[in-house]
Amino acid sequence: MATTREIVKRRKSVTNIHKITKTMEMIATARFKKAFDRAVGAKPYTQKISELAGALASGDEKVEHPLLRVNEGSQRTVVLVLTSNRGLCGGYNSNINRLALQHIEELKGNGQEIDLRVSGKKGQQALRYKGYRANVNYTQFDDKTTYAMVEELANEFIDWYSRREIDAVRVVYTRFISSARHTAEVLHLLPLSRLEGEPQPGKKGAEETGIEFFEFYPSAREILQELIPTTVRTRLFQCFTDAIVSEQVARMSAMKAATDNAEQMIGALTRQYNRARQSQITGELLDILGGAEAIK
User: Fold this and answer.
1) How far apart are CA 102 and CA 261, in angstroms?
2) In degrees to the nearest 10, what's the CA dihedral of 47, 48, 49, 54?
3) Quick check: 112 and 91 in contact, CB under 8 A?
4) Which of 54, 75, 96, 292 is closest to 193 using CA atoms?
5) Which of 55, 269, 276, 285 is a Cys-bridge partner for 206, taking CB atoms 3.0 to 4.6 Å apart?
6) 59 Cβ partners below 8 Å, 6+ apart?
7) Which is nearest to 59 in space by CA: 197, 247, 219?
8) Cβ-based burial of 231 (10 A; exposed 0-12, middle 13-18, buried ≥19)
9) pLDDT greater at residue 201 or residue 24
10) What is the pLDDT of residue 201?
11) What is residue 214's predicted lDDT score, i.e. its pLDDT?
């Protein structure tokens, strides 16, 4: 059995860990609230702008745009992987990295050349360990990522696709569904195969959305020339906001589990210490009684 000194030392160590994990849980909770407000606030705009573009594109005029066509000449696909710069967030990064590796292998099996771009130190380390060195690494995207930062990256992808330098852009990220559910997914950012946004009952085209009751100036065709690139930018920004809030949820859950485990361990060590101390006191009393009997 461990001595009381060893138990006290171990309990002190676990108590210090408990303080750290509790603090990190509180920080993650505060950051989650801010990230949640941003993600939820941006999602209706992303959905509506996609619905508007889809409704305009479903009109009588045939719309042609470089981002709607299918490129097949370059055999080059951009894969953007969104991970975190910090760890201690459970299986958040491992789920994304696993899905990214599967998707990369699938694309390579189809004869595609991969232009790998990774956001987050954890993804860069994991993919490098697996033998995949990213063409570009990003570390500036964190929980304070702005639309302007994402817009610059989206414009780069749009220019490449418009010049037929790439065939597709795929984003591997964690889609935020609710505080209890978030899942790693692959978004086909380019080409834009669907403009309706998130499926919504009764909203499929111009007639259902009420777009047919409006007159547009300039024409719907001219509006779409600007609206389609904006749809790409907002979708990419939504990927980043979803990834940020999912990271904070995962870290909050991981730190809460670590805090609960530390509390249980502290309780178990306290009981173990009490038993050891009781045994020690009993032994000391027996020694005292034995000495007293010997003196008689």
Assistant:
1) 33
2) 90
3) no
4) 54
5) 55
6) 206, 211, 220
7) 219
8) buried
9) 24
10) 42
11) 59
CA 160 to chain centre: 26
Q: Residue 206's pLDDT is what?
A: 46
The DSSP code for 201 is T
Identify the residue whose tokens are 């309706």.
196
Tokens describing residue 258: 């670590």
Show the tokens assigned to 83: 């991970």
Strand ranges inside 44-99, DSSP E: 76-82
CA distances from 15 to 8, 19, 290 (A): 10, 6, 39
pTM of the model: 0.81
Give the dihedral sign, CA 27/29/33/38.
positive
Helix H or strand E encompassing 269: helix 220-295
Using an 8 Å Cβ cutoff, are 279 and 42 in contact?
A: no
Tokens of 251: 């870290």
CA distances in angstroms from 216 to 29, 34, 56, 68, 224, listed in the order given: 45, 37, 10, 21, 11
**Is 266 exposed, middle or buried, given 0-12, 13-18 or 19+ CB atoms closer than 10 A?**
middle
Whether pLDDT at 227 is above 60 = yes
